[in-house]
Specification:
The complex is a heterodimer. Chain A is α/β, with parallel strands linked by helices. Chain A is built from six helices and twelve strands. Chain A has one domain: Rossmann fold (3-Layer(aba) Sandwich). The chains are: A alpha/beta, B alpha/beta.
């Protein structure tokens, strides 16, 4: 069984995630073939771009069911940025259904001036102390992560919110449903905070 | 936000770091900046020839592999194909300057194809006869454009950020161009990065006071270790500026 598989479905550069995992001694493979993804011990679903384009690309490569099957078998999954949003049932950004792995929907920011859209840059993440993703974070006064997004996640069940961030509204900056995780921010661009989060995921 | 000038794949303008094995290697320098707490990095390729610029994508690939903070790449980008190459190599944002002045539709096209969040428009501004005038080609060539109007135009065309360099302040170490930067920051709906003139820590506090800039960029004072990023951020936090430590 392959350890960590970073799913390549044509939505952005994946090299930085792979390299950050390598830095913390967790080799990962980048793959788009269902046969490889179906063997993964853990999955990372990254993504930059538009919701429908992403869902269509997953379907086209035969990956939608494979991902759902791995999750059903209890394999941990981490969605990053758009990859997190795909975990929802639906998004205001598109018409295709999402993976539906963390009940919720994705809506567009409507923020008061002087806040700007996209929400871009470093921001503070208020995490749930018991979330395994944030193990060891208490050593810092605050956890800061790098964000680039115009849409945000609304969980149907507040119990699925693993972290919140303030940007005109308190939105879910990380979600968790069993072993399915999502981060709206980019751990691979978030320095020591991101490295620790990726390490936590890799060691689940 | 440290800025690294790149020529033929090497850092130029001089770097003064004792703990680098190769002071000309932009990847090593960038990694050091990331480690000491830089929030983002900017790489400007000043390579003269198109031929040698092809090495830029390879460099970006190496940077992306080593750097765990966001970075912007600029210099000589004139088409969507150039941008596609650099983003695929792992750049988070690209910056355009002279090419946007020459062909403003390029900004619309890049924003449409890649999203505003990765399109930075760099503006080199110089005060001429009572007006802030946009200059191109490294600040050498004046244009008929006024800085404020041009900034507004590129925002309307879909730019996601403005990198504003004051040619009058650049290299003086007398502080950022606060008035001009504030004008842009408070009249635009997109972030403005102040550049040019940083000489010491106090200059960063000055430009962040009253939220007159969303970010600040400097080169030589970081390269020559006149300002240490970690110390700077501690200092800014004491001054009440929100920073990541």
């Amino acid at each position: 069984m392959t350890s960590i598989v970073i799913i390549d479905y044509g939505m952005g550069n994946l090299g930085s995630i792979q390299n950050m995992l390598k830095k913390i001694g967790q080799p990962a493979v980048i793959a788009s073939e269902p046969t490889v993804v179906s063997q993964a011990a853990k999955l990372i679903l990254p993504g930059v771009g538009a919701f429908d384009h992403a869902m269509a690309n997953l379907a086209q490569r035969g990956l939608t069911e494979v991902i759902q099957q791995r999750v059903a078998k209890g394999r941990p999954l981490l969605g990053i940025c758009l990859g997190m949003q795909l975990l929802a049932h639906r998004s205001d950004e598109g018409t295709l259904p999402g993976l539906g792995l963390v009940p919720g929907q994705v809506v567009k920011f409507s923020v008061p001036a002087p806040l700007k859209i996209p929400h871009m840059g470093w921001n503070v993440v208020q995490y749930q102390a018991n979330s395994p993703l944030f193990r060891g974070f208490a050593n810092w006064d605050e956890a800061r992560f790098y964000f680039v997004h115009s849409y945000y996640y609304q969980c149907h069940d507040p119990g699925h919110v693993a972290a919140t961030t303030w940007y005109g509204t308190h939105f879910a900056s990380a979600v968790q449903n069993g072993l399915v995780f999502g981060t709206q921010f980019h751990p691979e661009k978030s320095h020591k905070f991101g490295l620790l989060l990726l390490r936590n995921f890799a060691q689940l | 936000m440290p800025c690294l000038d790149i020529k033929d794949g090497r850092t130029v303008k001089g770097v003064n770091f004792v703990n680098l094995t190769d002071a000309g290697d932009p990847v090593e320098l960038a990694a050091l900046y990331a480690q000491t707490g830089a929030d983002e990095l900017v790489f400007l390729d000043i390579t003269a020839t198109v031929e040698k610029r092809k090495t830029l994508a390879d460099l970006v690939r190496r940077i992306a592999r080593e750097i765990n903070i966001p970075f912007t790449v600029g210099g000589g980008i004139g088409s969507a194909a150039d941008v596609s190459l650099l983003l695929n190599a792992g750049a988070d944002k690209i910056s355009v300057n002279s090419s946007a002045v020459k062909n403003p539709d390029l900004v619309n096209q890049l924003a449409r194809e890649f999203g505003s969040q990765c399109v930075v428009v760099a503006i080199d501004s110089r005060h001429v006869a009572g007006h802030d005038v946009v200059h191109t080609h490294g600040g050498r060539t004046p244009t008929p454009l006024r800085t404020q109007a041009w900034a507004k135009e590129v925002e309307d065309r879909g730019a996601g950020e403005i990198l504003l360099t004051s040619m009058d302040h650049d290299g003086t170490k007398n502080g950022f161009a606060k008035t001009l930067t504030a004008q842009l920051t408070h009249s635009l709906g997109i972030p403005v990065i102040a550049s040019g003139g940083a000489g010491h820590q106090g200059h960063f506090a000055e430009i962040f006071a009253d939220d007159d800039a969303d970010a600040a960029l400097a080169a030589s004072i970081f390269h020559f270790r006149e300002v240490d990023i970690r110390d700077l951020k501690q200092y800014l936090r004491q001054q009440g500026v929100v920073v990541r430590l």
